[in-house]
Write a structure and sequence with these properties.
Layout lengths: L2 H21 L9 H33 L7 H15 L1 H10 L4 H29 L4 H6 L3 H19 L3 H18 L3 H20 L1
Helix pairs in contact: 1-2, 1-3, 1-4, 2-4, 2-8, 3-5, 4-5, 5-7, 5-8, 7-8
Length: 208
């Protein structure tokens, strides 16, 4: 199967996830800025954080599939696993907002982030094994330092919320935000490998 169907389906799911999250926002009860801050302020912050995470996964997913020619059944299921984890974002984000950042919702949100990260790594691994020793995706991600750092920091956030009273929740929030900021900065190496791979593909088609 060509990758276009997988990409189109994934794009649609991610668009729906973002739509559901924004629909969870509560409109202010009044018409003043203070009403917006009081009623929707925390919700806007949690929505923004989750929106950034979904955007990061969409961007990386987009680059990943530029390095894939065809997908197998294993890739399809691994991709569905990632989409399942991301589809939980509206629920965990809403609970985080409505609970006013209580410990359990903060922990569950962090576990959701970890699960999505693990699912993405599984998808990467399945694709790399399918491509073999000369995998362009393996070349693009290298040692995946950012991925490893992200997992450690998010796990530290979950443990902080679980084990440290009061301030642990805020440490967890800082960890989740920190990982998002880390991934907002684009990885130029991956973009370069994608460009080189596409150039080789175009050359192959030209000579064919």
């Amino acid at each position: 199967m060509k990758t276009s169907r997988v990409e189109a389906f994934s794009d649609g799911v991610l668009a729906i996830i973002i739509t559901i999250m924004v629909l969870e926002l509560k409109p202010p009860e009044g018409h003043a800025l203070s009403d917006l801050v009081h009623t929707t302020g925390a919700g806007l912050l949690t929505y923004l954080l989750s929106f950034v995470y979904v955007g990061i996964y969409w961007n990386n997913h987009h680059h990943m599939f530029h390095l894939v020619r065809r997908v197998t059944g294993g890739v399809l299921w691994a991709n569905l696993g990632l989409l399942f984890c991301l589809s939980l974002f509206p629920f965990t984000t809403s609970w985080l907002d409505e609970s006013s950042f209580e410990r359990t919702p903060v922990v569950i949100y962090g576990l959701n982030l970890l699960a999505a990260g693990v699912a993405y790594v599984i998808l990467q691994t399945v694709i790399i094994r399918r491509q073999g020793p000369d995998s362009p995706l393996r070349q693009a991600i290298g040692a995946d330092v950012k991925g490893k750092i992200s997992a450690v920091v998010n796990l530290a956030g979950v443990l902080s919320a679980l084990l440290i009273d009061d301030i642990g929740v805020w440490i967890a929030g800082a960890c989740y935000v920190g990982v998002a900021i880390l991934w907002i900065v684009p990885d130029r190496r991956i973009a370069r490998v994608v460009h080189e791979y596409q150039a080789r593909e175009d050359a192959d088609h030209t000579h064919a």
